[in-house]
Structures are given as structure tokens and as C-alpha cells.
Design brief:
single chain; about 525 residues; alpha+beta; D-Maltodextrin-Binding Protein, domain 2; 2 domains; five-stranded mixed beta sheet; 22 helices; globular
């Protein structure tokens, strides 16, 4: 057993009387709510034995005291249908990777966990038998799961590399791909009402320098009458995206290494584009346009400065329908403002006028299992994951209880939630179900709980980013030599690029001299990695 204290250990009550909405399947009253019949996917399946399953995951939304097994009707239906109880162990974003690394290497991994995938580390775990190898027939036995996992190209590559399947990659997009070229979904949010008051015209696409100029003019006018006004309030992790926007390989959202025009690999930190971004941001910081202590700000305080206290004019955040909805609610409740009138969502371009990004590998995190998990538990989990990847399973996870929270009108999903009501607040969907395998990003374009205008805007941003790029500034296909590269040298050269950039931004002295000294210091670690990549 794991020598860890679970956040929740809640025994499943008799679920014999619980039926899925719309009478989808029947229950065997002789067991503890086990499915022994039913229709569709559930037909012929038997979950007569109750199982307790250890599950460890990072946030968001793991709340102390919340019942993720029996606390509300939606959760009771799901755990009752599969006759399971989740014993959940939470990770914070800060301790996720290290804490799980310790448990895996000590042979004390949870039965099921979400892994922040690292290819070299993952190979070692597989070779040492520290994670479970899935049965050879898993793709035919769990076809919906196999289809969804295959939407992440790394699935097939890892399977071939490791001689079997050890990790189930969680696809960002599966059923609802917005564009062929998948970009990171971060965007800039700017106060449009303050721009009008300061006589500034905003555009749907703006260079980093144009955003800084906007901040400069808004600071001078200060239409919001904000004391000690610094228009840009962004925490370090998000702040680093500015470097990414000028060079997609700057390391904030993807690899820092890329192949240059001469065929040789380079480190983006040493590129002139990085110096160019640094000069813009360091000058803006010294000018007082960027919050003096941005590097101390924690999530979600930077967002709160924008939509709760109203002391910020610029943030970088998810350009997704769910984030727009969240902001709209805050602007109305906390600031008494209409979101559409007050906010402009902007695609950020590099100083060359093009959108820059490293191509997405279309996954975030992987589901893996302890080598000590029983075959019975593994099968139950894989069946549950398989159902979660069906159309029916996705509708339940994303929309709630059919007939209560939503219904179908032809092919259109009609929501019955009240205005401003959140499905995630109503039910304990987080952290287990929302990102069970297919990530929630995938349903953004269909979810009836978000305004059609926000869903349209989300897709428009993807299209705009793709159209504003070239194959050089935003490649279509990842460089798998870089993605799959692993070595001791690479591990030694690992660094939190956003923190490194933030330290350079706030550092006093000559900006270019500081950057060159930093590059020279880091190249001692970087050069061995470049040598490895250039010999592949």
C-alpha cells in the first residue's frame, strides 16, 4: 500500500437504486450497484465487484473536503455505473513532478496517476518496470480509448520506442480540432474601454512593441484612476510568453532547441530575437509599465488584478471560451462592466509581424499505472477511460446529466443550466473527470454552456494564429529529434526559462551586457546538448 494520506477515502454507498439518466442501463440489486446489463456501450458488461482505486493528479480544483465519489448526483451516477471509489491524492503544480518522481522510483506509485511526461525519464521507468505495461490487446479491447490516445502522435512513437504501451497520452484535441496547425491557446487581453479613453485604436493582431506602446499611453492617461498604475500585471510563468511570441522556441511553451537554416541545432535563448524581446520588456519595466514585483505574483492574482480589482490593463491568459466566460462574470460582478465593451482579445505577433510558436504535440500529461495494480483494477479503469472517449461519455462529462442539465434538439446541444451557473461548480467533476483522457479544450467549440460568440472567438483565434504565421515561424510538424531527445546533458541543462527571463528583465545595468553574460554562463551546459543533437 502507498504510505500516503489520501485527501478523500469515501466508501461508495449502495448504488443499486441509482439509474443513469434516461434509463440507459439497469442495475443488479444483488450487488453494490453493479452494471450487469444495459444498452449501447454498457451492454453485456459486468462490474459486480466494487473496487477502490488510488488516483493521483495535479489540480485544478482539488478541494479539501469535497466528495469526489458520492457527493452529488452526477458523481454518484459515474462511480455507481463503474462500481468504484476513487481515493484521491492531490499534487500542487509546484510539487507534481518531483513528488511523483520520488514515488515511482521508490516503487510506491499510485495505482493510477497523471504524469508530466518526460521522454528520457519515461524510458527509464518502462525499462525498469516501474510503470505498468498495458496488455498487448488493449487497442482492440478498448477501441475508443485507443482512437483518442492515437490523436497524440507521440503515442505511436513511444510505443515503438519502448516496445509496448506504458503511457496513455491525453489529447488536447480529439473530436473537435479547430485547425490543422495547432497553436498554444494563450492570448493577450487588453482593456478596450481604457484604450478608447486614451485615444488608442486596438487591433486583433498586435506586436509586442505595440502592446507596450498601448501600456505606455494608457499609463499616461490612467482613465481608470488607478493609484501607482503599472498597466502590465502578469505573473512570471505567463510573462515569459512574450519571449515565445518573438521566437516560438524560446522555451516557454515547448523546446528551446531548433534546427537553423544551416541545418545545425541552436539554442533559442542565445538568439538575437531573445535579446530583442528582452530590450523591449526590460525598458518597459524600468519605465514603470510592468508591475514592479510581477515576479512575486502567484496564480490567480495576476488575473484578479485584471478582472476583479481592475488595476491592470494587460494580461496574458488562455484564449478559450471558458476563460472568456469566467472573465465576463467577474467583470460584471466585481467591476460592473460589460466584458464585450471593456475587453479586446488580441493575438500577439513577433516584431517581424508574424505569429511565432513551436508546433504542439497535441497532448498534455499522460495517464500511467503502478506496476503493482491488479489486472482487475486495470481493466476497470481502462473500460472507464474507453467509455469517457465515446460521444455519449463526452456529452456527460462536458454537459452534465441528460434531461436535467442538457438535452439534444436534433444535433444541437441545449443547456438547461441557469445563466452564470457553472457545471464544474454544480458537480465535483474536477479533477477526476474533466480531463480523464480527452482534455476539456476539445469540447470548447460545442459546449452549450459557453456563449456562441465566445466559442466562435476561440476558433477564430486559432485560425488567425495559423494564418498569421509562416512555416518557419510556426512549423506544422514538431522536430521529433528534439522532442524525443533525452540525455544526462539535457537534464543538466534544464532550467525554468520564464524565471531566467524574468531575472534578466529586472536586472539593473546594461541590458545587452547582462544578456551576453547570461548566455555565456548557460552555454557551458547548453553546448553538450547541441553537440548531441547535431550528431543525430
Amino acid at each position: 500500500m502507498m504510505k500516503k494520506t489520501s485527501v478523500f477515502v469515501v466508501l461508495l454507498v449502495l448504488a443499486a437504486a441509482i439509474a443513469w439518466a434516461g434509463g440507459r442501463n439497469d442495475r443488479d440489486r444483488s450487488g453494490s450497484g453493479a452494471v450487469t446489463g444495459g444498452e449501447g456501450w454498457f451492454a453485456g458488461r459486468n462490474f459486480s465487484k466494487h473496487l477502490d482505486i488510488e488516483f493521483a493528479s495535479p489540480g485544478p480544483g482539488i478541494d479539501e473536503g469535497k466528495d469526489y465519489n458520492n457527493g452529488d448526483e452526477w458523481v454518484k451516477k459515474w462511480t455507481g455505473a463503474f462500481n468504484i471509489t476513487f481515493n484521491i491524492t492531490p499534487f500542487t503544480w509546484e510539487n507534481w513532478a518531483e513528488r511523483l518522481r520520488i514515488w515511482i522510483n521508490s516503487g510506491d506509485a499510485p495505482e493510477m496517476f497523471v504524469y508530466d511526461y518526460n521522454h528520457g525519464e519515461a524510458r527509464n521507468y518502462a525499462e525498469q518496470g516501474l510503470v505498468k505495461r498495458l496488455p498487448d490487446n488493449w487497442k482492440t479491447k478498448y477501441p475508443n480509448l485507443a482512437r483518442a490516445a492515437n490523436d497524440a502522435p507521440l503515442s505511436a512513437m513511444a510505443e515503438e520506442s519502448f516496445g509496448g504501451t506504458y503511457y496513455l497520452f491525453r489529447p488536447i484535441y480529439s473530436n473537435n480540432r479547430p485547425t490543422d496547425k495547432l497553436s498554444p491557446h494563450f492570448s493577450a487581453y487588453l482593456r478596450k474601454d481604457w484604450a478608447r479613453a486614451a485615444g488608442i485604436t486596438l487591433k486583433p493582431k498586435m506586436k509586442i512593441s505595440e502592446i507596450i506602446d498601448y501600456a505606455r499611453k494608457v499609463k499616461a492617461a490612467n482613465p481608470g484612476k488607478v493609484p501607482n498604475f503599472s498597466p502590465v500585471v502578469i505573473r512570471t510563468g505567463n510573462f515569459g510568453y512574450f519571449f515565445h511570441y518573438n521566437n516560438g522556441f524560446a522555451g516557454i511553451n515547448g523546446p528551446t532547441y531548433y534546427r537553423g537554416d544551416d541545418g545545425k541545432y541552436r539554442w533559442a535563448g542565445a538568439d538575437n530575437s531573445t535579446l530583442e524581446t528582452l530590450k523591449l520588456l526590460a525598458s518597459a519595466y524600468r519605465e514603470g509599465l510592468i508591475d514592479r514585483e510581477f515576479y512575486t505574483i502567484q496564480d490567480p492574482d495576476d488575473l484578479g488584478a485584471f478582472y476583479t480589482t481592475g488595476r491592470s490593463a494587460v494580461i496574458l491568459a488562455d484564449g478559450m471560451a471558458w476563460k472568456m466566460t469566467e472573465m465576463e462574470q467577474h467583470f460584471k460582478a466585481d467591476l460592473g462592466l460589460n466584458f464585450d465593451d471593456a475587453v479586446e482579445i488580441v493575438t500577439v505577433l513577433g516584431e517581424d509581424g508574424y505569429y511565432h510558436a513551436a508546433p504542439l504535440t497535441n497532448y498534455w500529461g499522460a495517464v500511467a499505472f503502478s506496476p503493482n495494480i491488479s489486472d482487475e483494477k486495470l481493466d476497470r479503469i481502462l473500460q472507464m477511460l474507453d467509455y469517457s472517449c465515446t460521444e455519449e461519455g463526452q456529452l456527460e462529462i462536458r454537459c452534465g446529466i441528460k434531461g436535467v442539465d442538457w438535452e439534444l434538439n436534433g444535433s444541437e446541444i441545449v443547456s438547461h443550466l441557469k445563466s452564470g451557473e457553472s457545471l464544474w461548480d454544480k458537480y465535483a467533476l474536477l479533477p477526476v473527470y474533466v480531463n480523464m483522457l480527452i482534455l476539456s479544450d476539445d469540447f470548447q467549440f460545442r459546449d452549450p454552456n459557453y456563449k456562441q460568440a465566445f466559442r466562435n472567438k476561440t476558433k477564430e483565434m486559432y485560425v488567425l494564429r495559423a494564418q498569421s504565421s509562416t512555416e518557419k515561424t510556426f512549423p506544422s510538424v514538431p522536430d521529433w529529434n528534439v522532442v524525443l531527445h533525452s540525455s544526462r546533458a539535457l537534464n543538466l541543462a534544464s532550467m525554468a526559462m520564464a524565471d531566467e527571463y524574468a531575472a534578466l528583465v529586472i536586472k539593473s545595468g546594461d541590458i545587452e551586457t547582462n544578456w551576453r553574460n547570461w548566455v555565456n554562463e548557460k552555454m557551458v551546459l547548453i553546448q553538450p546538448v547541441l553537440a548531441e543533437l547535431n550528431t543525430r
